[in-house]
Amino acid sequence: GSGTKAEPRPAVVTVMGHVDHGKTTLLDSLRRTSVAASEAGGITQHIGAFEVKMPGSKRSLTFLDTPGHAAFKAMRARGAKVTDLVVLVVAADDGVMPQTKEAYSQARECGCPLVVAISKCDLPQANVEKAKQQLVAAEVELEEYGGNVQVVQISAKTGAGLLELEEALILQADVLELSALRDGTAEAVVVEAHLDKGLGPVATIIVKGGTLHVGDSVVVGTLWGKIRTMKDSTGTPINSVLPGQPAEICGLRGVPQAGDALLAVCNEDRAKRVSDARAARKMAPMLQVPHMNGVL
Ligand code: GTP
Ligand code: NA
Ligand code: MG
C-alpha cells in the first residue's frame, strides 16, 4: 500500500493461565516447534513473542507467551498496552486455579476480549464440565450461559480444537478492526530484554506503528541505540518490522525494561540528546529532596 493510510495489522494475543496448564505447549503446536521441552524445569522464564501464520485462515497472529502472570503484570504496571486479545488456558484435569483467576481479572482490567481454551482434553482425567462450572463460579461470562466469552476445548498433544481456537481468535481480531500506519517513525514496546554475552543487550519488541528498520536510531526509556541487527521470531535475520509484528533487536546501549516504549528518531545525535534529557528529568526530583539542600 501507499503507507499513508492505516493498514490491517496482526492481532497481538497474550496467552495466560495457571502454571503448567499448557500455554507454551499450545504455542509449540501452533508453531510446530518444541520450546516447552527445552525450558529449564519446564517453566517459562521470560515473555516470548511469536508471529504465527495460522494454518486455517493463513492470517498472521502475534502471540505472547507469559510465565505465569507476573511479567504481564509488570508490563501493565509500566503502562504498556500491547495486547489486543487474551487466550486464557485452563487445564481440563486441573480446572480453575489461583493464577487462572488472576489472569482473568487482568484481562478484564485491560478490557481485552477473551477466549478460554480448555487444554489437555486428551487426558483420561479431563473434566471439561467441572472446569466450565469453575469458570462460571469465577464470574467468567461464558457464551453458553449468555455471556460473550467463547470456550474452546483443545489438546496441544493431538491438535484437537486448534482450528476452532484459531477461528475464535480471528473472529475477535476482525471485530477489533486492527490497523496501523506503516509510514513514519516507528513506535514499539519492549516485551523482554536481556544481556547476551556475545551480542550485548538484546530486546524483544513489538511494533505498534510505523516501520522499524536496521540502522534506525532509537530511544528506549533513558537509553539509546542504533539497530544493528534484527531477527524475526523464527530467528531469521530481517531488515524491517511492521506494526503488530515482533522482532529481536540488537544495538541498544543498555538493557531496557519490559514495557518500555521504543521510538525511532532521525539520527544518533538526536537519540543521544533525547535519552540524556529523559535521564536528566528522571534525576531532577532527587535535587528537590529537602535533606539534600545545601549539599549539592
Ligand atoms: P509455565 O510456563 O511453566 O506456566 O507452563 P505452561 O502453561 O507453559 O505449560 P507447558 O506448556 O510447559 O505444559 C506443562 C505440561 O503439560 C507439560 O508436561 C506438557 O507436555 C503438558 N501438556 C501441555 N499441553 C498438553 C495437552 O494438550 N495434553 C497433554 N496430555 N499434556 C499437555
Ligand atoms: Na510449564
Ligand atoms: Mg510456559
TrEMBL record:
Family statement drawn from the similarity comment of this UniProt entry: Belongs to the TRAFAC class translation factor GTPase superfamily. Classic translation factor GTPase family. IF-2 subfamily.
Location of the protein in the cell: Mitochondrion
Residue ranges occupied by any Tr-type G domain in the UniProt entry: 8-177
Biological role stated in the UniProt entry: One of the essential components for the initiation of protein synthesis. Protects formylmethionyl-tRNA from spontaneous hydrolysis and promotes its binding to the 30S ribosomal subunits. Also involved in the hydrolysis of GTP during the formation of the 70S ribosomal complex.
Protein's UniProt name: Translation initiation factor IF-2, chloroplastic
